[in-house]
What we know:
The protein is an alpha/beta fold. It is built from 16 helices and nine strands. The protein has helices at about 20-30, 40-50, 60-65, 70-80, 90-105, 115-125, 145-155, 205-215, 235-245, 260-275, 290-300, 315-325, 345-355, 370-380, 400-420, 420-430, and strands at about 130-135, 180-185, 225, 250-255, 280, 305-310, 335, 360-365, 390. The longest helix has 21 residues, at about 400-420.
Amino acid sequence: MRRIVAEDLDWSLATVSSLSNLSLQCIVNNFEERPIYEELTSSEKDFIQNRVSLSLPLHFAANVFPDGVYWKRCCEQKWKVCDVSNYGESWKRMFFERQLENIIELFVPGITEPKTVLDMVTLCKDHIKKLNIAQLLPPIKEPQTEDEEQASELTLANEDDKSGMDHFDFRILLDKLTNLEELHLVYKVKSCGMNFEWSMFEMTNRDCESLAKALKSCKTLKLFRLHLSHLEDKKCRLLVKYLLDHPSLRTLDFSHNVIGDSGARAIGKLLTKSKLEILNLYDNNIGGPGAKAIAHALSKNTTLVSLNLCLNRLKDEGGQAICKALLNNKTLLHLQLGANGVTWLTALSLSSMLAQNNTLKSINLSCNALGEVGGNALEEAMSHNTSVTECNIHLTDIEERRVSVINQMVWNNQFRKQETNPREKNTENAN
């Protein structure tokens, strides 16, 4: 009796593939040489995407495969964490956005060829809607001799940023991304180690000018965020100059920078000409004069719905100006003035405003010394106000009993709002 021993121990007659699957596997094995895809059915396309090699040339795969399993496999192979919900549920968009972000973050001026970026843009420009750049590398500095160091110290004061450390030039990129809606930037180096220099954590003048011109060319941009980049007044004014007539910008975030009164005045001008809806200036150096400029623009503005001025230096001069501006503003919904050194004087102005303004929905006054007089004024104002549904008065030196009373009034407003708009209540519960 003869006995046949199969080389494949898992093989059996019960698992013989169908002829169609064998044909599809043949297509998979020879896909790069003979790409057959468009002629296939939906299930056959899924078969191909599930099995084709992930080492296909990117320019080839980008033109052949639409969003689907292939790009999911590419993402999961390249990154450990892949939350596709942050990319509109599109795996192809996730792959290209993160790939382009990685190229920009590792771009070394003077060494990396711009063609590296441009080649990728050619493939992915239709899929890029958001870029979140977490670092921008400066040029590599050649070691200097002692004589060269002394010479550079002598000439540094006479050079206006000519020998500064310039970063990636966004002018070669942004005008080509015709679907870009969000841009998040930070001028810093993630892991600088022992080579730390402060210049690695700020933009140069040339960086600022090139970025400003690039932003103006990106007509589809809706959100721009530049934070933790030591953005000061001069650079802020330059950026604002190029954003004044931007057709689509709706959200501007300059948080965690060093913008002062001069920069704030430029931002005030921006509020009078643009269609901004959200402005975030959290953690800057804006004082009373700068706040007055923003307040003046706010009194005429009809588009802004959220203003964050927390952790600045407004004092009562700026706080009162903002509150008085809201007597004429009927569109702002969210106001944040926490940690600004304001006192009961601002609380009095706010209370007078709340008696007439029925638009404002949320207020943040935390970490300000409002005291008993300020607490009494807020309690009186809230007894007549029906629009405010959030009011943060933590660490304001208001006595606990009065805080409880104010909070109860805010909760009553929330309840009335939910009863009046049950559909909105269901939406909030779903979120």
